[in-house]
Amino acid sequence: MAFFLSTFTNKVDKKGRVSVPASFRSAVAASHFPGIVVYRPLNFPCIEGADMSFLEQLSDRLYGDFGPFNPDQMSVATAILAGASQLGFDPEGRVMLPAEMRDAAGIDTHATFVGLGRKFQIWGADAYQAHLKDQLSHAAEAAPKLPPFGGGGQA
Amino acid sequence: MAFFLSTFTNKVDKKGRVSVPASFRSAVAASHFPGIVVYRPLNFPCIEGADMSFLEQLSDRLYGDFGPFNPDQMSVATAILAGASQLGFDPEGRVMLPAEMRDAAGIDTHATFVGLGRKFQIWGADAYQAHLKDQLSHAAEAAPKLPPFGGGGQA
DNA sequence: TGACCAACCATAAAAAACCATGGTATCCCA
DNA sequence: TGGGATACCATGGTTTTTTATGGTTGGTCA
Fold it and tell me: Pick from A87, B47, B107, B133: CA 20 to 30 A from residue A72's CA?
């Protein structure tokens, strides 16, 4: 499955087009759908995206963990999957962000793409600066509670 | 997974390129991505690096142990993955260190690669001299306090 | 016809590939 | 064992390609 790293800030032109970072494009190139899938996360004022198989896996997991007729599952599936969009690349590797998502995320002239492993986020450039600060201080507390991983050291 | 040993100091040219030690290169050669992945550790003024599967493992482990929307998971993922970069080798085995990382680590003209097993660090050559001194004296005190490990005997 | 959307073309900046070189350690053979 | 040849590695500069970005054109649907 695709893997996303690093942070990139690109410009949104007046037609709403944004270049998807080249490394993100090549990450999803192998996928069945040649583009990205975006949705509104529940907990942050931003857009989240991934390749198609990530959403398929998320769906499978919801059904697997809760069963197909569980109310919690249904509400989460509706909130995420029903609002999702497939965005194809134009010949230059750009996408058009849906207007409602852009508004919801407060994306104006500059969009920041944030690689988070199997998925990524898209923030308004200014909002992300503040968010990053929060996350870093939160991570300092949260990191020791998380399971250790390779290298034998603190990451 | 790749394994890194020894210490090497190489020159950084004015374009920010550094030769990755040959033994580090061959360590990651088997990996899917032909290059290294670097990120800013939380606790030291240096750069840390590993092969791609190290970060994939970290990411998948976070997503596996917690739901995909857990706040602790998200903050750590943001701190590490969003600040990470994939650095591909040029045909001569060099990488371009991102400017912000070079600044954050105080790397000027000479970069010191420090093998630490599953991962490695990159320091400014001068800063590393001081750091090494600290670590050595600290290790002498810390070693006896470590719990015994493998083989059944005292280390 | 007018608004919207998708492809096309152009350009400047940044990144990657290419080519050349000097030094060092290693191998081979007399 | 000595000396030359050789392979490898780190380094520097130049060229080519990619990427991000802006504008323009053509088509489509209401």
Answer: A87
Residues contacting B90, CB < 8 A, separation 6+: B17
A150 in a domain, yes or no? Answer: no
* B128: CATH: 3.40.1550.20
Structural domain of B54: 7-145
Cα B81–Cα B87–Cα B90 angle in degrees, nearest 5:
175
Instruction: Tell how far CA A67 is from the center of its chain.
Output: 25
- Flag whether B134 is in a domain: yes
The answer to whether the Cβ–Cβ distance between B81 and A117 falls below 8 Å is yes
Separation of alpha carbons A137 and A46, rounded Å: 19
* Closest residue to A41, CB basis, from B69, B78, B84: B69
Query: Which nt has its C1' nearest the CA of B9?
Result: D10
Q: Is residue A105 part of a domain?
A: yes
